[in-house]
Structure formats: C-alpha cells, structure tokens
Design a protein that fits this description.
Elements lengths: L2 E6 L13 H16 L3 E8 L4 H10 L3 H18 L6 E4 L3 H13 L4 E11 L4 E3 L1 H6 L3 E2 L4 E2 L1 E10 L5 H10 L3 E3 L1 H13 L3 E2 L1 E3 L8 E2 L2 E6 L1 H6 L1 H4 L16 E5 L3 H15 L6 E5 L2 E3 L14 H8 L1 H11 L6 E3 L1 H29 L13 H8 L3 H22 L1 H6 L3 H22 L4 H12 L15
Parallel strand pairs: 1-2, 1-14, 2-3, 9-15, 14-15, 16-17
Antiparallel strand pairs: 4-5, 4-8, 6-7, 8-10, 11-13, 12-13
Bound molecules: 5'-O-[(L-methionyl)-sulphamoyl]adenosine (MSP).
5'-O-[(L-methionyl)-sulphamoyl]adenosine binds next to α1, α8 and β14.
Length: 471
C-alpha cells in the first residue's frame, strides 16, 4: 500500500465553472479512484483561488462585497465538483485564515531568496503576470489569451531569486525527479527556464488591495501566484505541521497554460523551503468549442450544467475522459457528445448489459461474481497517466464481448436445449463484463456500481430502466 497525494489547479473565482475546469477534476478523480481500488491511501486536494486583481475587479463590477462574491463563486465550484462525482479529500480556499497565516510563514522562510527592487514592465491582469518586452512586441501589445492590452506598470516589488534554483530545477526535470507530462512540454519548460528572470512576488497595496499582506511590509501584498501555489502544502498544514506523510505530491494536475508557473516558480519556492519537488506535473490541453477557444465575447461558452443535465454525470465523465485527449487540445460539440452517448454508452454498454441480464434471467442461470483485478495494459496506461489509453483498453473488452456474444449466439444454444454450453457461455460473458466494468469503475463510478449490484444479487434481473436511456 502506498500513500498518494494528488493535487488539482485551483480556479479563480472570477466567474462560474465552465467545461474546461472539469479537466483537472476528472483526471485527478480517475487517478484517485484507481489508486483507492488498488489499495493505496489517497489524499486529494481541490480548492479555489480567490485573491488578486482579476477577482477583485469582477467582484466590484458585480456590485457585491468582495467577501460575499468569493463565497458565492467558491461554492459554485464545490457544487460543480460534487455534480461531477469528483471526491477530493480536502477543499482549500485561499481566503481561509489557516492558508493566509501559513503563506506568511512561507514568505518568511523564503526570505534568504527574496529581495526588493523597483520594476517597470508590461502586465496582463488576465494572466496576473508580467511579460517580457519580446512577448509584448510579438503579441502586438495585446495578450493573446485575454485579448486585452498589456498595462504598463512601474512599482516597487519583492522578487524571488529564481537564479538560485535554475540548475537544480533543470536537473530535476532532465533526470525525471520531477517528471513533466507530456514529455514534449519538458523541452518547452527548459527553454523558458533558461530565459526566466527573477519573479516579482508582491504588488504595492495601492495597486492590489485584495491579497495576503507581505509580513513586515504593510505597503505590499503577496503576488497571487505565490499565494495560490502555496495551497498545495498549506492544505497539508505546512509549515505548522509535518507534511512528510503526504509530500511530495505524486502528481499535480494542471492545464498547459499554467504549467510554467508549476514547473518554474513552484519548484523554486519548494527548493527555497528545503522541500522535495512533486514527482509528476501532468498538463492537459484546452477544451475548445467547435474548434475555437471558448469566450464570452464569441458567445460559444458551453455551460457544464447543461451538459450534465443532458445525460447525467457518467456521460459527462465518459466524453471528457475518452473523447477529450488526455494531453492535447480537444473539441467539444454537442453532436460528438450525443454520438458518444448513443453509440457507445447506450448501444455498446447499455444494450450489452440489457441483453446479457435478459439471457441469464430467462434461462435461470445461477451466477456468482468472481474477484477482479486490472489487466497489465490498463495498469501500464494508468501508470503513464494516459487516461485515454486506460479507458480505451477497458472499452475494448466491451466491444470484444459484444462480438463474442454475436458469434456464440447463446439464444440458439437455449433454443436447442444445450444447457451446459449455455451456462458456460453466459458465465464467461458475465465474468468478462464484470472485468471490463471493474476497469471502467474509476471513469464511470455510478453505472459501474449499478452493474456490480445487478450481478451481485441472488437472482439476476435486467435493469428496470435502461442504463443509458435514449431521448
Ligand atoms: N488560479 C489559477 C490556478 C492556480 S493553481 C495554483 C488558474 N485558474 S483558472 O481558473 O484560470 O484555471 C483553472 C484550471 O482550469 C487550469 O488548470 C486551467 O488550465 C484550466 N482551464 C481553464 N480553461 C480551460 C479550458 N478551456 N480547457 C481545459 N482546461 C482549461 O489558472
């Protein structure tokens, strides 16, 4: 039995959850369920990132008090997690008092690597980040991710001396001590690391009031990324408690846009604190809508609640875990989603269960469930955290089984009174279905539990309503 610590990026609460936010949660949840089924002990953090200008500006625009605004939106992410069937063990908010106090302690522990200087540069409020002159001119003065002009900011800042840690970070990435997935992103990070300047880790309070005060300097507030990244260890109690039971994280799930913060600033902070680096940084791609980035101005933002309402949470999980690429950008369209639901969930799996249970029940076959375990190919895919491969492997059992039933024609065995052969065939099919179901469990927990229940009962009967009803 091992101890596994899984972390997810904490979304800004400057809006409601969208389908893209589901990716971190779903990947983490599958990995967590897989490890729990393998007998490991899992700690799994999720939470919300609540400080910074971006959140503050939205709160002001909404007319709500900023505290009420963040409370309301943080709760929406919590509700979303629940609706997805995602089960973190911890939920941290960066406005939690424990987190704020621990962040200030982290700052103090890092003080040997912090200096103050004045800075003038181009800042994107959407990214909460300064960009280099080169990036500024390449993007013609407009942030490509947020379509907003960069602001010229000139201010006194505290800096974290990234240069103290560059060599160590590079060697941790190259040696695989801190593995980056997918591998090609490791090369991008090494290039960025080579050019990486020291990072500004504070803002003057006059420019940013909504944040954690810098200890010992009332005029400064902590940079939102320093505050946010710390959540992965403050949630475990650091530095007030010994976190060695759980830290280093087994894997941190993040989107490709924020990998650089996790692969450069975060390791620098950890090294400065004398803590080990996460074992794996797993970065997923973006979910696009009809091939385009979702944006309110284009009007193509897909509401995850609508998708959940359409066919329930297992269908949602299935689509994003199988048809969204684990590592690269992927498209969501209602057509693709409905096809996956009808052809795969309803036909391949739903009908299979219906058919097999009907045959077993009609022919009075006594069936006793056997113990199951994961196939080697599935375990390999899970170890590589390639969740597409893992679910495809599980699904190949379903497809093979449909084929095998069509070929064996058990209904003819029944008609010809070949009871022994029929019992053998149906028992084998049920065993295979339950093996596939065992592997599908981390992906489709609700339906997997239903199938398991059906085949655990004394007298097997078909589900009263189809597992995946068609509209
Ligand atoms: N608050 C920071 C993360 C701090 S982690 C210490 C942040 N928040 S975010 O709300 O912008 O993004 C949260 C997560 O959602 C990130 O992993 C991000 O990559 C992911 N996604 C946001 N939009 C996405 C898509 N359209 N598709 C897939 N994931 C995307 O960054």
């Amino acid at each position: 039995m091992s101890k596994i610590y899984i972390t997810t990026a904490i979304p800004y609460v400057n809006g409601t959850p969208h389908i893209g936010h589901a990716m971190d949660y779903l990947l983490s949840d599958v990995y967590s369920r897989y490890h729990k089924m393998s007998g490991d002990e899992v700690r799994f953090q999720a939470g919300t990132d609540e400080h910074g200008n971006k959140v503050f500006a939205k709160a002001e625009a909404s007319g709500l008090d900023v505290n009420d605004y963040v409370n309301e939106n943080s709760q929406k992410f919590r509700d979303f997690i629940e609706r997805l069937g995602v089960e973190p063990t911890d939920f941290i908010r960066t406005t939690d008092k424990d987190h704020e106090r621990r962040c200030q302690m982290i700052w103090q522990k890092l003080s040997n690597h912090i200096y103050s200087d004045s800075y003038e540069g181009w800042y994107c409020e959407g990214c909460e980040n300064f960009v280099t002159e080169k990036e500024y001119s390449e993007n013609n003065g407009i942030c490509p991710d947020h379509q907003k002009p960069y602001q010229r900011l000139s201010e006194k800042n505290y800096y974290l001396r990234i240069s103290d840690f560059k060599e160590k970070i590079r060697s941790a990435i190259e040696s695989g001590e801190m593995k980056i997935l997918p591998e090609f992103r490791a090369k991008e990070i090494i290039n960025l690391l080579n050019d990486s300047p020291d990072v500004s880790i504070s803002r003057p309070r006059k420019n940013l009031s909504w944040g954690i005060p810098v200890p010992g300097d009332d005029s400064q507030v902590m940079y939102v990324w320093l505050d946010a990244l710390s959540n992965y260890i403050t949630v475990l109690g650091y530095p007030e408690q010994d976190i060695s039971e759980w830290w280093p994280a087994s894997v941190e799930f993040v989107g490709k846009d924020i990998l650089r913060f996790h692969a450069i600033i975060w390791p620098a902070m950890l090294l400065g604190l004398g803590l080990p680096l996460p074992k794996t940084l797993h970065s997923h791609g973006y979910i696009l809508a009809d091939g385009q980035k979702m944006s309110k101005s284009i009007g193509n933002v897909v509401d995850p609640i609508e998708v959940l309402d359409a066919h329930g949470r297992d269908a949602f999980r299935y689509y994003f875990l199988r048809h969204a690429d684990t590592f690269m950008d992927s498209d969501f369209t209602w057509e693709k989603f409905n096809n996956a639901y009808n052809n795969e969930l309803a036909n391949d799996l739903g009908n299979l269960v219906q058919r097999l249970t009907t045959l077993i029940s009609k022919n009075n076959i006594a069936y006793h469930k056997k113990d199951n375990n994961f196939s080697p190919a599935y375990v390999e895919a899970m170890n590589e955290m390639n969740f597409n491969h893992a679910i495809e492997h599980a699904w190949s059992h379903i497809q093979d089984l449909n084929k095998a039933i069509n070929e064996a024609k058990p209904w003819e065995l029944a008609k010809n009174g070949e009871t022994e052969k029929l019992t053998q065939a149906l028992t084998m099919f049920a065993d295979k279905l339950l093996h596939a179901n065992y592997e599908l469990n981390p992906f489709l927990p609700d339906v997997a539990a239903k199938i398991d229940d059906i085949f655990s009962s004394e007298k097997i009967t078909p589900p009263a309503t189809p597992l995946f009803p068609k509209n």
